[in-house]
Fold each of these.
Amino acid sequence: MFEDIQEVLVTREALEEKVKELGKRISKDYEGKELVLIGVLKGGVVFFADLIRHITIPIEMDFISVSSYGNSTKSSGVVRIIKDIDIDITNKHVLIVEDLVDTGLTLRYLKDLFEDRGPKDVKVCTALDKPSRRKVDVPIAYNGITIPDKFVVGYGLDFGGKYRNLPDVCVLKESVYDNKVD
Ligand code: 5GP
């Protein structure tokens, strides 16, 4: 796995520091409020697990699974729910926890979906942001680290189902992508 890495783009230390800071801000902003964190599977799971341990107020949590890239590095723009949340978010504050905002299409869809279910509000928290590729505007209340327009893996993000367990955010060698991109 490590021999496929070309470059570490964001180190685990930088991620840890950012996550701590986000946890602190979220704890302060939602003090005394009913907060539901919704993690987006599978990519958001590493960030989610790190983030909740830096939140010092009571929270509820749930997960939604949506279709993403499959084996390709290009977004189809089509969002499909594979697993919905189970809990009722009526009158609660919702925070969607994502791995990375790229075109914004996934988050736009999720935000609209949850807003139709009568929450107090729906905000977004992302570990990584790639603003240069945005197609639709989605406000990000809690942004981790802004990255350039490169396809990355690690810290929850995959390529062909692999590399999610890399602790840093990395760019793979071109030869790895060339062999698999459809
Ligand atoms: P969007 O809908 O904003 O284009 O992207 C949604 C999802 O696509 C992200 O949550 C992430 O799972 C995936 N994605 C976007 N950019 C990358 C990338 O550089 N690497 C990987 N592995 N996944 C990405």
Amino acid sequence: MSSPPARMDLDGNPVAPLTICMIGAGGFIGSHLCEKLMAETAHVVLAVDVYCDKIRHLVDPAPPHLAGRISFHRLNIKNDSRLEGLIKMADLTINLAAICTPADYNTRPLDTIYSNFIDALPVVKYCSENNKRLIHFSTCEVYGKTIGSFLPKDHPLRKEPEFYVLKEDESPCIFGPIVKQRWSYACAKQLIERLIFAEGAENGLEFTIVRPFNWIGPRMDFIPGVDGPSEGVPRVLACFSNNLLRREPLKLVDGGQSQRTFVYIKDAIEAVVLMIENPARANGHIFNVGNPNNEVTVRELAQMMTEVYANVSGEAPLVEPMIDVSSSQFYGEGYDDSDKRIPDMTIINKQLGWNPKTPLKDLLETTLTYQHKTYKEAVKRQMSQASAS
Ligand code: NAD
Ligand code: UDP
């Protein structure tokens, strides 16, 4: 068995193998991070989650070459006394656990707030009390709406970067009113960021906060009725993939005018590995992780996905590939939206020298090829069973 080559940090020092307690390891980001750490490093992972479907190939059972490198701990961090022991065993804790699908924010606001704030409290506390380093996953949604969105539609200042580029140390967090329960997630994430920051300032907690900007790729969320609930509403990549697999029009919420920057999961994971292996450069920082070059409106994303899917599947595009739906029809009352999300990259560039590489078209080709291969037959079976019953 060949062991991975010795790792060096950005300052030329060897990186000692770490034990990492990864909470939420069974999710989309966690599964890619586990794969990367197993393939390219000698770090040991204590993978914590309530599900392991996305990392089954790594843990159930661990393949012989990974013996002793990764173990799965099925536990709910809400109520399990084993959590502190696992954090104590590790050098570093990475917390990914969260309810993080927008369809839940206004329909299950209590679960959303508990998951993103209350349930994260013991993780922060155990890290602080035991002098353990923490990498906590927050979100770009803490920025909320851009300053420019409050200007009249054609106001020239809307084009000025200081009215829309989102900077970790400067931009304000602008949320809608309390009745717009969409912001329950962003507000809970903001408060846990403030608590972590305060633990750093007052008690010396070594922390890094990550703000992902729409990381997408294979294994994101679920396809409703296949590997998730039929009525479930995942994030936009899985919603549009589901529509394409079923040959139904892609639904554009409120005209699909909101803008997003999408980054390929494999690019983003490289940034996380840099944070893991360069604590002196990452501690005490909040990092935007996104790809400012991949900006599209949701309507443009739908157009691109329709074209790319036609190429990778060989199926002709639909005559009517998109339809408009209102946000209250699609998400229910209390939905609201972030208008535009361009990450400023100065801090992550300076501290970690990280830059995203993959253009949107390329990442959609890889991802939709995966979606087609993984789900097409299952979707066909599920549709024929549904029509027979
Ligand atoms: P995900 O839903 O795929 O993964 C989250 C994982 O946490 C799931 O496997 C879930 O089972 C687990 N989990 C939730 N509650 C738990 C609990 N109480 N106990 C144990 N496990 C629990 O989501 P993801 O896309 O991988 O996101 C990971 C983190 O990154 C989240 O904190 C999310 O808010 C943040 N984030 C992600 C994105 C993105 O682009 N994917 C964007 C912004 C923020
Ligand atoms: N969206 C859409 N159709 C869908 C799913 C999502 O138009 O089927 C829109 C949604 O309103 C938002 C954007 O796509 O403007 C991105 O949604 P996502 O769920 O990925 O999460 P967000 O980026 O808002 O956190």
Amino acid sequence: SMDIPVTQALGPQVGGHAGVLTTEDGSLLIKPALPQELEFYYALRQDPALDDLRSFTPTFLGTLKLEGKVESSDADLTSGAGIEHVDAEGKDMFSSIVLENLSYPFLKPNILDIKLGTVLYDDSASPEKVARMEKTAKETTSLETGVRLTGFQVYDNITGLPVNTPKSYGKSIKAHELGEGIAKFFPVGSPAAASSDSTEAPASSSGLPLESLLPILQTIREEIAEIKQVFSSLELRMVGGSLLIIYEADWKRAEDSIEKYLLGDSEDEEEKDNDKADKEDEEEVAEDDEDEDSEDTDPATTIGPPFVVKLIDFAHTKFVPGQGPDEGVILGLDTVLRLLDARLKEITPP
Ligand code: ADP
Ligand code: MN
């Protein structure tokens, strides 16, 4: 067993149920999980057929048993976990999964949770729930497009604080308004604010300057196309799962990160040099780690990626061998690709 100081609620949680926690340093996320989600993450860890999907999901570190009010006895499911704690007195415990916190490497994470799929209930749902979920899908963008904007946060450049758009927004809009929603998540910041000595107020109070936003959007689009490719080869049903998109909203950090991760020369020799440099950096960090005063692994001093795109929330995901891919989720991924193409077109200068 391992001591994990669990001290805070996940700050930037843009969707889902309350109760997602992070470790003290914010690098790991602890989320209450149903047996089905545990099962999915164990399969993901072991099954070679899921190798390609693994890089598009948060790293799974293990499970944790927290003392709670939920009565359950799924103890055997957690055996073999990397991190485990079973209460000695055998009190009621519920299982949590420990995942990489995807927003940790960012200075100012803009975060969007897009719920995927047209079917929002699984086999275990009661007839009442099936009826309710079918109605919700029909009344929202889900049934028609395979997506619903669950919620998002976007940093304001003036206040320096994140602004949250709650799930009521994504639930209320029509399919033809999804583009506006995507534009709200990928606003173009005014270049006037780019120079620190400018006193001019920016035209848009949020968003990256176009020269940063364009390569980020373009690469996010490419990754989602890859996710679609991988997902199309799997016989899964992902009910109520999401595509989580996070990108850096801090102008300087985004610029540095793009330089480091996206603009690296793609020639082999250069790449090797970069890898070598990265490795040296890591070694340096590792050495400095022994020094307690070191801040090198703090996200404030380490340049993370300009964005991440991952599939999350496998609470109702199951394997359906022989039944083909999840067409509703694939429709959703196609919708996202179409929306990103439209946004790229909208903001690309003639
Ligand atoms: P729920 O079953 O409550 O919907 P989710 O897995 O969707 O649970 O998580 C809820 C929210 O927590 C997400 O919308 C997202 O904002 C945040 N979240 C979930 N997993 C991660 C992760 N690995 N890294 C960062 N944020 C996450
Ligand atoms: Mn969710």
Amino acid sequence: MHKILTIGEILVEIIATEKGDGFRQATPLIGPYPSGAPAIFIDQVGKLGQAAAMISRVGNDDFGHVNLDRLKADGVDISGIAVDPLGTTGSAFVRYRADGSRAFVFNIRHSACGTIRFDEATRALVGTCSHLHVMGSSLYAPSVVESIIAAIEIIKSAGGTVSFDPNLRPEILDSPGMREALQAVLAKTDVFLPSGQELFLFTQAKTEAEAIAELLAAGIKVVVVKRGADGASYFDRKTTLSHPGFAVEEIDPTGAGDCFGATFVTFWLNGAKPAEALEFANASGARAVMISGPMEGASTRADLETFITAKKG
Ligand code: ATP
Ligand code: MG
């Protein structure tokens, strides 16, 4: 039986209810919603009934409890999430612009999850897991990068696997050491889940086909390219497959990539055929965008089956 682990940021998300460019004027807000890319990912894994754990840190405050309560309710092992009595839980304020792009104000590096430490208890938890999922956004602080690299070594040397979603936001790309850390993770990746220009971050290639070929030649087993409303494509050395996006009304795109990735990795680890894993992942991403709030649109397997059946009509 597989157990999937993530290490990284736990935040609350607070959403501006009116579109506009950032936060330089007072604007109505709604939240807190449980959030943080690896937290959304692992919540979606837990909701699918797959064994799941997270290593992180929150403050002993309501924002921390919003997250702990949700993850626990959805079946995630939260024993690796430390509650720091002196820390404050991370936060992200997000406002959508009229063109659909997003402006963020993040408090991550200087929040409780900026001080994640790899100790004996975390080492023991990592030892119970067979797969690590890494979010590029989680490489925001040296101690988190060290924890992720240590976990990769433990899991891979025990025959486990690693998936990696670069999940880059311009606001955090220039964190110290982030580019080097991204490269180090990619070198150990089995399943790579980029979206948009992230496919070209680590290659010299000019075209998508060349970039995929380069990544597969470098030892990555599977590349899945996320294409928003247009769905996603799957590549391994033998197979190329695409699945169109399911037609839905997009209310809030945050979390779609995380739910998509969690569903793909869960199905892949459990031996699903690529076409089935891709279809369920697309359904998971589509359901995520229909609901406001980053983690609110995570799905159970029954939700996905009902959705797919209804869409195929
Ligand atoms: P995130 O903002 O969560 O980081 P991402 O860039 O990683 O997102 P996207 O490509 O935006 O990932 O979305 C992931 C998947 O979710 C898509 O591949 C698709 O399956 C589904 N999806 C996203 N947006 C839509 C949409 N508007 N309609 C239908 N499906 C969607
Ligand atoms: Mg993403």
